[in-house]
Amino acid sequence: MTTTVRSIKLPFNRVEGDLDVRVEVKDGQVRDAWVSGTMFRGFENMMIGRGPLDGLVITPRICGICSTSHLHAAALALDQLTAVQVPANATRLRNVTQMAEHLQSDMRHLFLMFAVDFSHSCYQSRSFYPQAVQRYAPLKGATAIEVVRQTRRILEIVALIGGQWPHSSFMVPGGIVSVPSNADLRQCRHLVYQFRSWFEERVIGGSLENWAQLKTVTDLDGWCTDAAHRSAELPLLLQIGKELGLDSSGVGHGCYLSCGSLPMPAGEGEAEHLFAAGFMQKGKLRAWDPEQVVEDVSSSWFAGSTVKYPAISETLPQQNKPGAAYSWVKAPRYRSQPAETGPLAELLVAGQPLLTDWVATRGESTLARELARVVRCAELLPVMERWLRQAAGGGSYYLHPGEIESGSGIGFTQASRGALGHWLQIEAGKVAHYQIISPTSWNASPRDEAGVHGPLEAALIGTSIADEDHPIELGHIVRSFDPCLVCAVHTYRNGEPRSRLKIGLLG
Amino acid sequence: MNLYWLQCGAGGGDSMSMLNMDSPELTELCHEIGMNILWHPSLSNHSATEHEQILEDLLSGKQVLDIFCVEGFVIAGPDGQGGYDLLGARSKLGIVQQLAARARVVIAVGTCAAFGGIGNIGAIDAGGLQFVGDEPGGVLGADYRSGSGLPVLNLPGCPTHYGVLADTLMGLADGQLPELDPQQSPRQWFDMLVHQGCLRNEYHEFRVEEREFGDRGCLFFYRGCRGPLTSGPCNKLLWNRRSSKTNVGVPCVGCTSPNFPQQHPFFQTPNIADVPLELPAGVDRAHYLAYKGMAAASAPERLKKRKNLV
Questions:
Q1: What's the pTM?
Q2: Shortest Cα distance from B20 to chain A (angstroms)?
């Protein structure tokens, strides 16, 4: 324990992109935190002057993990711009591919990028350690091997409908380019069945029908202690999480944002999305209003006005900006508030009972964010089955949207890591404006004009650290947000000021 | 055989593609060929201090480096020092240069590492390992050779095909150095066109060409498909064991090409007199026009009316 304030270095691999986290520690406790994106790759500026459909090719390549979500957002922006009515079955199949991507991302994140830390030798004195190594050791643990196999298989759905994963461009304004046969869709259903069987047996330990009955943390505790489920992954993860205090660490602002997940197919009910959009602040839910989204660049290396609206804001990098800028990530704010986004936010806003009860009784935490990834998979699987059945039998998957000359559109979707927006403007058949706000921009945002921390920064403050040379407690918190800095910082041709110590690792 | 993986200016798509290996799976591959992944940024669970030691041992030569994989474009700016992209106190540019000097084999995984890719569009002075676009050079220089005597092995694609990566590693584990084409890619996988094996080939033969998405015909003449112009095994290996972009109706975007991404709008074919401006390598325009005119004239109704289910 030190009594002096010390800035410490945090390693961050297993996040996509370049993440720097600096924390100030006193008496073994984090007093302040700065989260920075340190490379600006510049995708939005690359888009200017390009062809009207080029966003469908370029933007998925921002990120290898959620390329289908970027594609969906880009296509939705073009749908809106062209005012085309997307056929119901095209919406179903767009959704199903994105859901397959979510299953992939949630399971790879949970096991390969989060639980893998439990197999680190710093925990060798813990009773869970031998089991964690046996299950989660990189590429060797029994569960890690299973996760690699199952996530690879579920992505075959994206290839059957869209040609390949990652980085296809099969969603276009008006629907999808492909005409999947009934045989293709039966294969997709088989893949869902296969994944579901594994998920039920190995991840949660019981059937989705029974799982769906869990409404409270008491129900969940009962599920985990039931001998029939005890050998599955979730009971072990929750047990380790509680032992390490992850059910009380990582408490942020308590503001959650979802821009609505998976548009409902035309003619299927009144709801706009499968998981409704909204903004929740300290348990109080408000309607989603895209006009309330601004980008604050007070602490970011960008020039121009401090607060910008994404539909018109420009991306003007300014490496040597005077003042206290420390990140290439902008600070998106909703009603002037920072907002956490991701599976937990998505399901809380949608009113999912188990997570709502968990947060109401145990509070938000690192562990709640991970539990949300399991809950989301369980919610998605039956809907994928339903949409695949409904989409069979031919019908229309594409409506010609007409020539694209000019106009503007916004595409919102919930990527695996949370709220994603593409703002697009086309003039004279060319892209005139492209602005992207990605989930990690929300979560890993720096301080705003009012000095309010970003959600991840807030979640780090107050954390107790046992070993300042290996602050794995902070690692768990950071990873629970599943940061993707390649999404957050897009691009440009400037780097960090060289005087800054880069403390994060890797991209 | 050990392997060290460095991500530079990348979105991680090649690493994600690697996780899609199926025959063998990645976990099987490591076991089967005795490959030890010393470090992969998305998979390893070493602490920063432990990683630092691994890197130090490789740089000093204390630990032999068999395979050095680079994903993403390498940023040389500013002033050729690489300070825009750092790993700890080191520039990734410096790490690339130093590890390349130690490695038995260097693999550029994906188009960005091979040719610069997306990195070439801007002005951070980024490029591939031995090419910037189709110009030889890059951050290691055209004359670079690894310990095995090979130049950088380029495995282009956005992302690279996991099957190409797996096969390359399996061959290297056998001590076999692949035969390379002028762009330093294994001929085994790049001496073919994306067009070869496409399910739309019969439409192509009879010049049954689509002007719109959502149908079964060929996409080369109007919808910007680069399948007949692009090297790669997409339609031999297929993707995710199942299909390919061109099979489902997504025009090939030429992602293995040194000049990807193109400046011209995607999904539009520049034409002269309704025939693509750019023809497959070695094809005589006059003969091609004659052939395509006759092909269209002999097209059967079942294709013209899109009566086939595929």
A1: 0.95
A2: 5
